[in-house]
Design brief:
By secondary structure, the protein is an alpha/beta fold.
Length: 548
Amino acid sequence: MPATSGDLALIPLGGTGEIGLNLNVYRCGEDLLAVDCGIGFGGSDSPEAEVMVPDATWLAERKDQLLALVITHAHEDHLGAVAHLWPQLRCPIYASPFASAVLRRKLGEAGLLQQVRLHTVSLGGAFELGPFGLQFLRVTHSVPESQALVLRTPFGTVLHTGDWKLDPTPLLGQPTDEAAFEALGREGVLAMVCDSTNALVDGHSGSEAEVLDALTELFGELKGRIAVTCFATNVARLYAISQAAMANDRQVALFGRSLRNADAAAREAGYLKDVPPFLTEEEAGFLPDDALVIVCTGSQGEPRSALSKIAADTHPQISLGEGDTVIYSSRQIPGNERAISRVQDQLRRAGCRVVTADERPVHVSGHPARDELRKLYALVRPRFSVPVHGEWRHLEQHASLAREAGAEPILIEDGDVLRLSGNRPSVVESVPTGRLAVDGDRLLPLEGGVLAARRRMLFNGVVVASLAVDGDGRVVGEPMVSAPGLFEHLDAEPGQIASELARAVGDLPSNLRRDDDPLREAARTALRRALGRRLRKRPMVDVHLLRV
């Protein structure tokens, strides 16, 4: 490991003080290393943005210093933004075999696969990048091959846990490598940057084997079609569903592109070997109801997901109703509660029974509860604790637990530059951060003009007037006013507003009517006044001016 000048710092650009959008940067001297690059969901706070990514502008401006991006595991909130942000960063990527398989599909869909240098690192593998000596440590999580990342530097060793839990009986892969963490603790750890998601939850997170038992028992009680919704990359849950189905003489079909991609990536990485190929959406319709289990995307109420389409009875291949059951084998991501409730209400209205983890043990978290956190601190014995991956209430509770465990906690949030070298870690500066909305092939700032206009249209509506004038600015014919979402189809108000607009333009001074820009702005003002008298609100207005 080469010597270096400067300092060692952690710079979270997303995922600290919030759920999702994980993007962390480590600085050692002049070199930068990024860890994870994930998405988040808009939810009720940002209805104009369904999917968001962290704003990586600060990092992109320093891409010449960026050694690589290391991915800890294959969940969307840790790698889902790679295809969106890599064109700005253009750095090598290091990931486990399963995460690499997932990334290849995402990068291929984005047309980037041939451009990205994607390095596959074996489980528990070690590699060096500049001043960083890096090593993966095996952890259990709700996706195969989750890895904690050890960063050995001239200034000390940092453990970046990623997402993890202590599951003694995982259905796929091996348990968390507690011996490796204990050995790391004996070596000495300067700081542990650790998952805080379940820092408010007492006890233990539970085991995937318990979910298998619960699903097997529940499937045996049910008649009719069974639908299970879960996170697509929870391959252990796919395995549990398949085993529970086979134990009850049912076959399993996958509904949703992300599930099919996860299945293909898992089989490519050597998982699900003893699971028969899943049925397609088309094949599912030919099975008797009592012989079918479908697994579908949409556990968070995503409007374009398979489950949302099924609930709305708009899915082209399948329908659910009286006598059928939908099992939510997932947790609610904060902010998605309203969307999830809406889909569940639609399902119940159609006659479906809805089963959640509040009723039966059909889900366990992939994140450590408080007893698991205590055990990891006892193994690693870090000098300092940096809680990440959680909202502020999670970080505070994690900090309190870390202090009890003998580690000094340091609370930070996105944009803080936490210097880890020196006598005691401290925030020495801040860098700009933010969120970008994924809008087709574009990334739009949440506070930018486009999304601000959408928010305004969402709550106040939009009115567009089309106006034709001659060379002298006299109105030709009758203006057309369109106001979707503000008036009913047969309402008289749009016609009345059009007449008022024509009169207002006719009353303008002749010299103003000959100039397009002043005429257009005066027409907008007249349109706003006419709307204000009727609606008592301020919709977004625009005027299309045609000079004939």
